[in-house]
Each structure stands twice: as C-alpha cells, then as structure tokens.
C-alpha cells in the first residue's frame, strides 16, 4: 500500500514539474515576442517610416468659408446653396399632391366612423402609402402610425390627424427652406439683418398687415425682430439658429396674420399684429415728450402705471445700451418685452441682471433690501404705511425656496414659478400693492362673479 502511494505522488510531482517548465517556456516566448515587436516599432518610429496610412481614408468634414476678397468662391457657394435648396423644395409635396393624398386617404377609410372622424387601419394605411408616390414614403411608416395611434378599439388612426401631421411637416420644411434662403453665411442661423429682410419681404403676404403705412414698415420690422432675438438669443450673440426659430411658436403667431378673419382678441394678444405693433410704438411716442426720438430716465418713468421705482430705472440706464444717457426704440422694445412677460425665463434673466447690482450671480438680503427701500419710499409718498422689509424678505424666501437659504439665483426664481411675483414686489409699487392685496382682489372677483350668476 505504501509503495502504491509513493508511486502516485511521484507521478503527480513529475506532471506538475512538466507543467511548470511548459509555463516557463511560454513566458519566455511571450517576452521574446514582445521584445521583437517593440524593437520593430521603435526602429520604424526612429527612422520616420509611417506604415499606418488609415488617416488618408478619413473623409474631409471641414471646408473653410471663402474670405471676403474671394468673390468667385463666394458666388459659387451661394449658387450651390440655391441649387440645393431648390432641389429640397422640389422634394416636398405641392398642393395638387396633397389633394391627391387626401382623396386616397378618404377612399381607403375603414368603418365604423369614430364620432365625426374618418378612420384608417394599418393595412389600408400601407396601401395608401404605395399609391401616394415616392414623396410620401417617409410619412407611411410604422413609427408615424404608432405616434398617431390612441384609444381606438380597432387599432385605427384618424385620417384628419394624419393629414394634419403631413401638412405640418410639409409646412416646417417649406419654412425652413424659406428661412435658409436668407441665411447669408450658410451656417444654419440668421443674423438680425437676415431676419429683418425675411420679415420685410413677408409683410405683403400677410393680409392682416395690409393697413400698415409703408413709412411704418421699418418700425414694424424692428418690433417683430426684437421678440425673436430677445427670447431666442439670451446671450446676445446677434444670431439665432433656424432650428430654434422653427421650434418656437413665434413664427406661428406671425404667419397667423395670413388669416383674413382673425378675431380682434387674437390680434390684440398677438405681438406681431398691426394693433399690437402700433400700440407699442404709440406708447413710445407718448413717452417721448421732447420729441427727440429717444427716452430719458424721466420720460421712461411714466411707463405703464408710472409706479416703477427710480432705483430700478437707474439700473436700467446703467446696464442697457443708451446714447448720451437716453434709450432708443430697440432698447425700449427689450424693456417692454421683459416687463410684459415676467413669467418667462428670458424676461427674468433681463430683470435679474438689473437686480444683481454687484454681479454676484445671486440676490442676497442686501440687494433685496436695497430695492425694497424704494418701494417703502413710494408708499410714504402716497400716504401709505410702509411694510417692514423683514416681513417681505421672509415671504420672498418662502416663495422661492432657494437651494442656499441666504442666496436667490436666477435658476431659483425660474424653478419656483414665482419669479414674476418676486420681481414685481421689488421694482413696481403697483406690483407690490397687487401682491399685498391679493386676497381682497380674489374676494372681489368671486363676489362679482356671484352677482353675474345671480343676475342670469
């Protein structure tokens, strides 16, 4: 038995030694191979021989823009862009093709009718796609169908909703091509002068602007362009991406003026309408008492309800572009857009910059107190009992709930959804009075509504 055990262990040891010798040889071979490769690559590097030429197959992705003196290259670039945009325009559905698409959809509707809506199922949807032609191919996909699929028990989609989807897509592409024609740089954005040219040439196509005098066109264009740049160019770079123009609702509002039967209420609420533009410009002229075409601080102080504090107006003239201490119409438009849209982040950014006197990036107790003191002084002038700052300060911090309990940032104001109330409390006596008497105003509204209901 002992002999057998010795034989077994001898066999195990021999096998283990053989494995170790093999591993040792493998390690030596690996080291030798690594040394050989290192020597090869190092020699090639020292001798300057470049064996890897894969970079030569990388396609060129950057083309330098022609310089101002390279007239021929500039013309060539303009012509090639014009040809490209024309080709893209021809790829879009025209009115006749859209009409044909509607007839096909109507012909392939699948009963029963859902309310007043004609419906179509996926099989019929694909059949229409085959007959509608190559221009429609991108619309007849499973992805589009699923996007429009809601709660129909038969798994169908509304023909009208699909057709409106197609119309919207076609309109977006048409508009993008139209805007791109004014993109002189060809970089996907419009400068102020580019957008001015676009809107100026658009005016004759908008029936709601037929009554405008041609002498007012330049003021109208300035009024319209400022809204785009105030909200879409917060960093004041002087240019806006065409994609941003298409994504916002401003272009819809502008092109709404094509409707000859636009209601009076819609016109008054539309910044781009003739009544709105005339209202803003008329206010400017009324404020300009010395008729020099510019507004001084004293003239601007009569803006709105004439309750903006002098401290806030001082900051406006310190931070905004002025000419010999007076404000021109373009600067005035930014001012109006900020005060009329205090809930919007761009407007809050404009006002926040004025409130942040020390350029700290936040409002602290000192800056809040500095601006509210002017409200307290106005209250004394009107014979009202001033409110204690400590109470107002606590209310502001409670409303905003900033991340830092001692600092209010612009993002804090935006996130709180109370930014318009906070800035109104600090810059406008009328805004502060409205906030202080909010419960009484709500009660009055409720009682007036009750009276109306009783009378009916």
UniProtKB/TrEMBL annotation:
InterPro entries (alphabetical):
EF-hand-dom_pair, EF-hand_13, EF_Hand_1_Ca_BS, PPP2R3C
Q: Does the keyword RNA-binding apply?
A: no
Q: What is its main location?
A: cytoplasm
Location in the cell reads: Cytoplasm; Nucleus
Q: Which UniProt keywords apply?
A: Calcium, Coiled coil, Cytoplasm, Metal-binding, Nucleus, Repeat
Where is the PP2A regulatory subunit B'' EF-hand domain positioned along the sequence?
A: 184-260
Q: Which Pfam families match?
A: EF-hand_13
SUPFAM superfamilies membership: EF-hand
Task: Name residues in a coiled coil.
Answer: 10-37
- Know the name of this protein? Serine/threonine-protein phosphatase 2A regulatory subunit B'' subunit gamma
Origin organism of this chain?
Ameca splendens
Q: Provide the organism lineage as a comma list.
A: Eukaryota, Metazoa, Chordata, Craniata, Vertebrata
